[in-house]
Amino acid sequence: MTIKYKQLNQEWNADPNAPEVSLQIIHRNLIIKTYLNYFVYDDFNEGDYAIIKFKNVTSYSFNTCNDEGYYYGQYRFGPKELPWGEFYEIESGLDRNFPDPLITIQKGIAQHKHYVFFFKDNTLECIAENYEVKMFTKNPNDKPQ
User: Fold this and answer.
1) Strand 49-55 and strand 113-118: pairing?
2) Of 57, 62, 91, 105, which shows the fewest CB atoms inside 10 Å?
């Protein structure tokens, strides 16, 4: 299998140790909050976080595949097809038959995009119209970056 993909996270990523991912559905949008990797990226400090909004979602899977399982071949694709640990848009070569638990929000729309985001202990696959990312500092009075 050859997966064609585009990496979407440039100069940021989820915290590799404790991303503390939370999910929420609001009006067909999947809202994800995750702490940012301040170990590698100097622009972030401990406690800084991102809000990723997947817009007009049709379905998603937030499953328990972690890096160990991924490298041991326990996921539907592996590191030879898609490198672990980043946020991707899948352009071609990967079906949309997500692993359980599969959450369906609305009927599928063919032109929607396929996203994959690897977190420390979870893998997110999502079909959505688009996405946006906003970065926030740990101080709630600070404005988004």
Assistant:
1) unpaired
2) 91
Q: Identify the pLDDT of residue 108.
A: 80
CB 76, CB 84: distance < 8 Å: no
The predicted-structure confidence for 67-105, as pLDDT tens digits, reads as follows 999 999 999 999 999 999 999 999 999 999 999 999 999
Q: Distance (Å, rounded) from C-alpha 95 to C-alpha 114?
A: 9
Q: How far apart (Å, rounded) are the C-alpha atoms in residues 16 and 20? A: 10
- Those residues whose C-beta lies under 8 Å from the C-beta of residue 58, and which sit 6 or more positions away, are 104, 105, 106, 107, 108, 109, 112, 127, 128
Q: Look up the pTM and report it.
A: 0.93
Q: What angle do CA 52, 47, 122 make, to 5 degrees?
A: 50
Q: Of the candidates 65, 36, 41, 62, which has an alpha carbon nearest to the alpha carbon of residue 51? A: 36
Q: Which residue has the tokens 């688009």?
A: 130
Residue among 56, 50, 1 nearest 26 (CA): 56
Distance in angstroms (rounded) separating the CA atoms of residues 85 and 14: 9
